[in-house]
Each structure stands twice: as C-alpha cells, then as structure tokens.
Amino acid sequence: MKKTTFRAMVGTTLAVAAAAVVLPATAGASWYEAAVPAGSGTAGRPTADSFGRAADAVLTERTAALLDGSPHRRRAGALASRDVHLSSGLVRSEDHTEASLRDRKKRLRELGEAYTAADTKVKVNDIEVRGGKASVRVTETTTLTYKRIRGNEPATTGFQAHHEVDFTRTSGGRWALTGIRPTDTGLVAVNAPLKAPQAKAAAADGLPVAASASTRRPSRVPAPKPAGNGSGLNYAAMGAYAEKYWSRYNPAYPSYDSAGAGGDCTNFVSQALKAGGWKHAPGSWDDYRKWWSDPKLGNTLSFVGVNEWSWFALSSKRTTNLSNVWEMGVGDVLQMDFNRDGSKDHTMMVSYRDRRGTPYLTAHSTNTYRKSVASIIASYPRANYFAYRT
Question: Which of 8, 144, 179, 331 is the least crowded, having the fewest Cβ atoms under 10 Å away?
Fold first, then answer.
C-alpha cells in the first residue's frame, strides 16, 4: 500500500510514509466492482499494470499538492516510465490542476484544516483498446490524515472516486496518457479540479423554498444539536448507517450511481434517515409530498431526487433550515447548489461532529467519509449551501 508525504521523492515509485493511514473496515469492500478484470480483454497484464501505475502516479501527485509542509513541486517527466509517459498537453493541464489544489490547500488552512499524509491506491476496472487508443476505467481510494490543529479532529477522511483515463499510442510504440476525467456525479473529490457548471432549470414556482445557509465560521462554538426532537429519532443511528455504507452499498436498496439518474447521494441520505427513524409517507411515487422505498415497487422521487427530497423534507415539517452550516450536528443534512442556478445538485449527511463544533459529512457519489464542512467550503467557495436540522 503506497503512502505519500512531503518527504516522498517523485519517481517511478513513491516512498512510503512513516505512519500508516487506515480507512474504516468498510473501505475494503468496495461496491464498485470491475466489469472486466484488470489486465484482461484487449490489453495484456503488463500493459494494464503500466496504465494503472500511470493513473496512480497522477492522482497521487494531485493529493500531494494538498499536504501540509514544504511547497509541493512536480518534476516534469517524473511520472514517465519505459512503457507510458504523460503527453505534453496533460503535463500543462496537471500543472494548472495542482496550482488550483495548492490554492485550495491555502483556503483550507485559513479555515483551520490541513492534512499531513495521504494514501492513494488505484484499481484498474476495465480497459478498452481501439486502434491506437485505450480507455481505462479506474477506481481511486484515497485517505488523508488530518493535522492536529484544534486537537480534536478525527484521524482521517477518505473517498472513493472513479475516473476514465485516456491513452494514445505514439509513433515510438509507447503509450501517452492524454486525459483523466471523473465519472462520478455530485461532490468532487478534494484532490480533483472543479467541474464546469452546467445550466439547469430552476425549481418551479409554488414549491417549498429552502433558505440558504451562511458558511462563515462563527467566533463561538455553535450549540450542540439537541439529543432528540420529540419524535423518537436516533441521530446516532443515522450517522452510524452513513459510515457503515459509505464505501459499500446496502443491497437492500437499489443503487443510482452511474445509472444516468444523477447519482446515489440523496438515495443514500434517505436510507440513513430511515435507519434513524424516519417513517414512510405512502402515496404516488411522483408526488413530492410522499416518501418511501420498496424493493419490489421502487421508490418515490423524493427518496432519491435532490430537489424533491428538499420539497418533501420542508413541506412535511420533518426538517427546518439552519442559518449557518456550522450549526449542523450528526444526522443533519447539507445540500449544495454548485452553480447557484436555483436547482440543488448534491445531498450529504453529517456523521461526526468534533468537540469544537466542526461537522464532518459522509456521502455517496463521490463516496466520501468524514469530509469536514471546511474542506467542502474551500472546494466550493461560490456555491449555495442549504443546511437542514432533521
């Protein structure tokens, strides 16, 4: 298992960090299984291994740009090998990406967050070769170790991200890595550049409207969330469910990841809410005032849709909007409108809150474990945020 610190020397392999970083036990059982075993099909094992190492090196370099310590500088050509090298276009692109990640690291530090070490692994899921081009789908699993700034941060945060990596065979017979792009929907990984915003239609008139929340960190620690709301909800069970299934999907529910349905983020949060005591609201599947999921009948739009969930949650009075994202506690929900167009894009749940009041969110699409609200704000400083007290 490869580790990354600022003492690592970039070359054909990367050095091993002094301390191991461990994900929760669930991380080892990824829900995302390869459609074709790595190295099979139209590419032989040596070629598949070379592709995997190249993708691993690029993603590891991105993560290293976020680490606290000496300024990270990538050496041109350092990721090259006998079989694979980076195209000049990708070198320029990665220079830009890593510069933006260093800016993100600065914003994180201003919000009181930093990382001291990282562990990135890449698994090749399948390869398709046509002529002189190869398309390689990989799963990245990355863990970052929190720096002890306030002294009560959790040990680690982690995510699983899926990428499609493009290679082109050059005239000399080597493969050039020409592009790498995420295939997940929803929140980008902390080591990924922001996606270009896409226009969406705003919510129709007459529907419940969520109030946006401030992202400014208050000078005082926000009051802790009440133990209950009088309805018998179990907030700890909600957070525990989210952390149990963050990297492997509960087979009792359908998955909407990579299904052309906008991702699995809201479906996942709805499952956690149900685990903590939310009851079904029976009725028509397309009525946002109804909320249920059934293995035989399917589910309502409000169970899986970002905007539909918000309309149900507010109209049913099961939630109220918080004025500041830092007020959230375990079991509370955060939604984001990435491009501020009036249509929400992503849903997450708070699964942990430290003693100083920092909420940490867990989500699907991208699969994410205990990502601090500070990290999210640093990655999306211009997004609109909506915080829900459940």
Answer: 179
